[in-house]
Amino acid sequence: MMHPFDLTGKSAIVTGGSGGIGFEIARALAAQGADVALLDKRTECLEARAEEIRSMGSKALSVKCDVTDEEEVRAAVNRVIDSFSKIDILVNNAGVAGAGSVDQVEESAWDAVVDPNLKGIYLMSKYVVKHMKERKYGKIINMASVCGLVGSKAIPLHAYAASKGAVVQLTRAMGASFAQDGITVNAIGPSLFRTDMTEAALFKDDFLNLYNELCPAGRPGNPEELHGAALYFASEASSYTTGQTLFVDGGWSAV
């Protein structure tokens, strides 16, 4: 009997796959047998990451792609289909964080956060869903955030919170629309996790002490602690689950 989390024979796209949470999710998928295409606009270590996936026994593809550029997205999706023949799983992970209050943040800074976090999901899904509908099968995982559910007194994250709240609702809407096409759409909502992006900005004593005091778990998350949620949504274990957001947040959203 096949293990419910087995991904042998499946092929996946992970955006923002060159590091941090994206690469951790890619590793988790590959460990269960999936072939993985890593998409990222940062190319410094992209092929090296793909080689790490290959060392695990899976096929891997590294593709330069800015998820806010429609032509790059279209070309990247076509390249993955040409290489893997199909796309079973799409992980919309690419995104950025950014602090700022609506009364202070410049329009360009607002767009720099909202576009990759929300428009990127729209564009990637636009081209992958067409392919998944033809095959009557697909698993889409969007990266939301606990900031899409609750506010923050410590730091004004207005553009980030707005974008991630929209991801939660977009996930519901897509899940409802595509269920009869054999496509499930779910989201993961992390709280603070240690990554290259958060290390420099947030892992400072004052903020970290405050976070640890407020978070029921008393600590930030480690990227590998997202493996379970990603594998659940990517596999047949979640065949009757769609439109949902699983908050992997150390209990932050529970209090």
UniProtKB/TrEMBL annotation:
<comment type="similarity">
    <text>Belongs to the short-chain dehydrogenases/reductases (SDR) family.</text>
</comment>
<dbReference type="GO" id="GO:0016616">
    <property type="term" value="F:oxidoreductase activity, acting on the CH-OH group of donors, NAD or NADP as acceptor"/>
</dbReference>
<feature type="domain" description="Ketoreductase">
    <location>
        <begin position="10"/>
        <end position="191"/>
    </location>
</feature>
<protein>
    <submittedName>
        <fullName>SDR family oxidoreductase</fullName>
    </submittedName>
</protein>
<dbReference type="InterPro" id="IPR002347">
    <property type="entry name" value="SDR_fam"/>
</dbReference>
<keyword id="KW-0560">Oxidoreductase</keyword>
<dbReference type="GO" id="GO:0008206">
    <property type="term" value="P:bile acid metabolic process"/>
</dbReference>
<dbReference type="InterPro" id="IPR057326">
    <property type="entry name" value="KR_dom"/>
</dbReference>
<dbReference type="GO" id="GO:0006633">
    <property type="term" value="P:fatty acid biosynthetic process"/>
</dbReference>
<dbReference type="GO" id="GO:0048038">
    <property type="term" value="F:quinone binding"/>
</dbReference>
<dbReference type="Pfam" id="PF13561">
    <property type="entry name" value="adh_short_C2"/>
</dbReference>
<dbReference type="InterPro" id="IPR036291">
    <property type="entry name" value="NAD(P)-bd_dom_sf"/>
</dbReference>
